[in-house]
Amino acid sequence: MIRLLIADDHPIVRAGIVGLFADTDGFDVVAEAASGEAAVALAAAHRPAVVLMDLRMPGIGGVAATREIVAASEARVLVFTTYEDDDQILAAIEAGASGYLLKAAPAAELLAGVNAVAGGHTVLAPEIAAQLVARASGAGRAMNAEPIPRLTSREVEILDLVAAGHSNPGIARLLCIGESTVKTHLLHAFEKLAVRDRTRAVTRALELGILPRQP
């Protein structure tokens, strides 16, 4: 069972999300929060595997709540919101969110996203990945003064598989290499991209045009 905390300040929306997971095998909604502060407190009290987090809520809001939850627990945060502003996307990911889905997504995509995040994968809605690509290739991205990191072909290949949702063991099997080798390549990529985790590595590589847009 995947233990879930649902954080959304709209009671009707929250009830709908809770109902979806309550009617689906494999999920247990252990708590509901209507503010960022409540989400932080309930995450500490109930230790969910995944926190489904709206961004704009009363109090500290979803980004700050994500940062506190990730810093204080092993819970993984999946942002689920109506907002797709570039700055909001990057702020949430830099705060430690493991994925970003829009509320317009079909129920099957949300269920799959929570399963993926609980399994240690990164989840980005196609619209979000496209925006990051557009941000990278836009005329105003001011990359002239900042050289693009030179990743090896293997590092790019592994990041592309991370972006597609594969775990480290899965990547090792696909490429017929050891899991420790996968981790080493990822650590080298993290260093070159100046990031600290898989999610930010993928989004940074998308921003810089190192990875192709996901289908």
Descriptive notes:
This protein is 52% helix and 13% strand. It is built from ten helices and six strands, in the order E-H-E-H-E-H-E-H-E-H-E-H-H-H-H-H. A six-stranded parallel beta sheet has the order 2-1-3-4-5-6, with helices on both faces. Helix 3 (61-72) runs parallel beside helix 4 and helix 9 crosses helix 10 (198-207). The model is unreliable at 139-145 (pLDDT under 50).
Comma- or semicolon-separated keywords:
215 residues; Rossmann fold; 2 domains; 6-stranded parallel β-sheet
* Number of discrete helical segments: 10
Shape: globular
CATH architecture of the largest domain: 3-Layer(aba) Sandwich
Write down the secondary-structure element order: EHEHEHEHEHEHHHHH
* Total beta strand runs: 6
Stretches where pLDDT is under 50 for at least 5 consecutive residues are: 139-145
Which percent range fits the helix content? 40-55%
Can you identify the CATH superfamily of the largest domain? Response regulator
Quaternary state of the chains? single chain
The neighbouring-strand order within the major sheet is 2-1-3-4-5-6
**CATH fold node name of the largest domain:** Rossmann fold
How many structural domains?
2
Mean pLDDT across residues: 85
CA(first)-CA(last) distance: 30 Å
Percent of residues in beta strands? 5-15%
- CA gyration radius, whole angstroms: 17 Å
Name the structural class.
alpha/beta
